[in-house]
Specification:
InterPro entries: ClpP/crotonase-like_dom_sf (IPR029045), Ech1-like (IPR045002), Enoyl-CoA_hyd/isom_CS (IPR018376), Enoyl-CoA_hydra/iso (IPR001753), Enoyl-CoA_hydra_C (IPR014748)
Low-confidence stretches: none
Shape: globular
Strand order of the largest sheet: 1-2-3-4-6-9
CATH topology of the largest domain: 2-enoyl-CoA Hydratase, Chain A, domain 1
Protein name: Enoyl-CoA hydratase/carnithine racemase
CATH superfamily of the largest domain: 2-enoyl-CoA Hydratase, Chain A, domain 1
Strand content: 5-15%
Keywords: Fatty acid metabolism, Isomerase, Lipid metabolism
Radius of gyration: 19 Å
Structural class: alpha/beta
Mean pLDDT: 95
Organism: Spinactinospora alkalitolerans
GO biological process, one term: fatty acid metabolic process
Bound molecules: acetyl coenzyme *A
Length: 271
């Protein structure tokens, strides 16, 4: 199947995004690029992220998500809730009717937004969030959607949605609970308190915390280390690890065998 075209630089800019591929085509860096709005995101940001996910060349093995300026992301652009919405996008409150078809349309719209987050778990890529400053609400959930989080020591994580009368709906509740446990997740979400980088490391919300000036180098080192494993073995291993939590020990052992048989056949075919 032909790969879809990557969104143009103009389309990316309209969504508050930039995309760069390294020369080998193995690393895609997505930058949240509305620094004057602290990289606040809109519906278009998320649908464009989904489009990026569908259109990246198959050579891409690592996706880094980072933010321009002092904050990773201040979450949803609060204008999305205003009567006017954001230019070119409908206000979420305006769409919120109680008729079944209104509910169905909202559900469908949120699913389209979630698609911008879900692809980051794909086995053929490893996604890395490079977080400096605030990651609030939808921004925190974007970091949670990534496989790995590298935090600058000034990072501040906050699940703000319940404080605004909402729920976190951009796929963040599952990874949050898996990482910190349901009790801590309840506390973090309902208090909407801000978690420092140091506490994030203790809560397993960060794989690595580094001084802010070292963030880019730390991410580059991690990316180089992740690229060391052969692509097919890396993808098969990630697929296996993703299944582990939902599987019984026997199911997982069976999955390991099935994956290893494929690896051994592929390796022996290579001679
Ligand atoms: N939506 C729209 N504009 C925003 C947002 C946002 N989420 N966050 C910041 N901005 C704008 C500010 O209005 C300000 O604009 P101005 O220069 O025209 O006044 C500019 O970005 C800079 O913001 P400051 O607040 O001055 O930046 P500071 O670094 O002091 O604080 C912080 C950053 C903590 C992120 C703060 O901006 C903030 O709390 N923002 C709102 C966060 C929020 O509630 N997000 C929604 C979460 S729920 C969800 O995502 C679903």
């Amino acid at each position: 199947m032909a790969e879809a075209a990557i969104p143009s630089a103009e389309d990316l800019a309209a969504a508050g995004l930039r995309l760069e591929l390294d020369t080998a085509g193995a690393v895609a860096t997505i930058t949240l690029a509305r620094p004057r709005r602290r990289n606040a995101m809109t519906g278009r940001t998320w649908t464009t992220l989904a489009h990026v996910g569908h259109s990246l060349p198959s050579s891409v093995r690592i996706v880094v998500i980072t933010g321009e300026g002092p904050s990773f992301s201040a979450g949803i652009d609060l204008a999305m809730f205003g009567p006017e919405g954001v230019s070119g996008e409908t206000s979420l409150f305006r769409q919120a009717g109680t008729r079944p078809r209104d509910r169905a349309a909202l559900d469908e719209g949120i699913a389209e937004y979630q698609a911008g987050y879900l692809w980051l778990r794909r086995p053929d890529i490893v996604s890395v969030a490079a977080v400096r400053g605030h990651a609030v609400g939808a921004g925190f959930q974007l970091a949670l959607a990534c496989d790995l989080r590298v935090l600058a020591d000034d990072a501040k994580l906050c699940m703000k949605e319940p404080a605004l009368g909402l729920v976190p709906d951009l796929t963040g509740t599952k990874p949050l609970v898996e990482l910190v446990g349901v009790n801590r997740a309840i506390e973090l979400c309902l208090t909407a308190r801000t978690v420092s980088a140091e506490e994030a490391r203790e809560l397993r919300l960060a794989e690595l915390v580094v001084p802010g000036s070292d963030l880019d180098d730390a991410v580059a080192d991690l990316v180089a280390a992740l690229l060391a494993a052969p692509a097919e073995a890396a993808a098969a291993t990630k697929a296996l690890l993703l299944q582990a939590q939902g599987n019984t020990l026997e199911e997982q052992a069976r999955a390991e065998r099935a994956a290893q048989v494929e690896r051994l056949i592929a390796l022996s075919a290579q001679g």
